[in-house]
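Model the whole thing, not chain by chain.
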Amino acid sequence: MLIAIDGPAGAGKSTVARAVAKSLGFTYLDTGAMYRCVALMSLQAPSREPAGLAQSARIELEGAVAEGDPDRIVLDDRDVTQAIRSPEVSQTASLVAADPGVREAMVARQRELIAAGGDWVAEGRDIGTVVAPNAELKVFLTASPEERARRRAAELGGDLPTVLAEQTMRDARDSAREHSPLVAADDAVRLDTTGLTLDQVVQRIVVLARSSA
Ligand code: DC
């Protein structure tokens, strides 16, 4: 079974997707981390075409080393778990993610992983619309912009006005891009997480998953 969790930055996708995967015993697929890897490569090799970098990247998504740790992300044999979370990488990820060649390479990689079998919770922006339109369950997570910025600032540090301004810029770019813009699939369940606890959101999705299996 595949559960697709899409939505804008800061809606709580990563935390929710990870918790849903854990609760159901599914594998968590963080597709944003893959775009972040391409962004990091692009920052380190600015003269190279992002699409070429995306094709050559060897990205391995590994589980956390210890309970509560972030999942380990290995790019060309280098641990980039921390490096891909910097504000600079976040902004560049949103730029490289607008490149059709980059998207093509990433979507192909994601489909391969999913097709290899097993049960997945895949998290991103285009899972329900492009990567896996046949997903058994599609959830589109949202939250108010202020709530999303508050969560990001609490998680990654930084002052609220700056985080909110950067988020607004990224949202606009992710939604307005020509290729696979951020939109909810027609058959996605919309879930506004403003004011809900993590447990409430996870429970809601687990119930939906049980009834769609
Ligand atoms: O979810 P995140 O913040 O780690 O995503 C990083 C960037 O990658 C974000 O700007 C949107 C983009 N992205 C995308 O375009 N498609 C995906 N499936 C996942 C992320």
